[in-house]
Hints:
By secondary structure, this protein is an alpha/beta fold. The protein has a single domain (about 5-250, about 260-265), classed as Vaccinia Virus protein VP39 (Rossmann fold, 3-Layer(aba) Sandwich), CATH 3.40.50. Helices cover about 30% and strands about 25% of the residues.
Amino acid sequence: MSFMGSFQELVAEGAAVPLDGWDFSWFSGRATEERPPWGYAAQIASRLARVESALDLQTGGGEVTASAPVQPPLMAATESWPPNALVASRNLPLVVRAPDEGPLPFRSSAFDLVISRHPVVTPWREVARVLKPGGTYFSQQIGAGTNRELTDFMMGPQPVSDARSVERARADAEAAGLEVLQLEPVELRVAFFDVGAVVHFLRKVLWTVPGFTVERYRDRLLDMHRHIQEHGEFVSTSTRFLIEARASGASRNVGGVIHAQQATSRHRPHARSQPG
């Protein structure tokens, strides 16, 4: 196979992979990412087994939460992007349409636990509102400057915003009235072994290169292909942090869990919304 033939076939393959759900198994053998040390899925499973009600914000396809062997009597989730919500509705009993930035369509003090893995944004005041007094928010989040090497390779040097920094997360949580119990950052090695994996990753993880299309970035993708051919991989650094915060204060009137709102469950039509 020629160099250009290999490039074109790999790019076409990466561009054809479906984007629904939040399953990264397609990358097996084509890319690797070091895992955080805290074992988010196992911690979530343990916590879900000990509460009566939980909410998974921006659940994606619901795969992580659905993997927990014990679910609380009330297990709700939100998702804004229709392809993900459709997958999530097959994995979880109740998926409700809600914008990532809020408001959340739930009554105040409705949940013992709110969880979120890699939220696009965290609606801190809404999280604080829907938590019961003493309830907790537990989340694995994407940190500032994640995969900056990949972003800079494709776009040129870019400034790193503090919007996803641990300092901002702590300040925003405390401003919403939550007590931060733990906040742990980590940097993790990421390696891509072919340009097709890069294409699929950039299509799936939209914030890495905003506005990415194969056509717009074909020249940089060709440079990426050359780099991987020469070095065997392209190495980047992902940043993650774990945050746990607790609600306090007097009990608020619940009056039911869900506001009047279109919802998706295993037995109801799927709700549609814009991508998050």
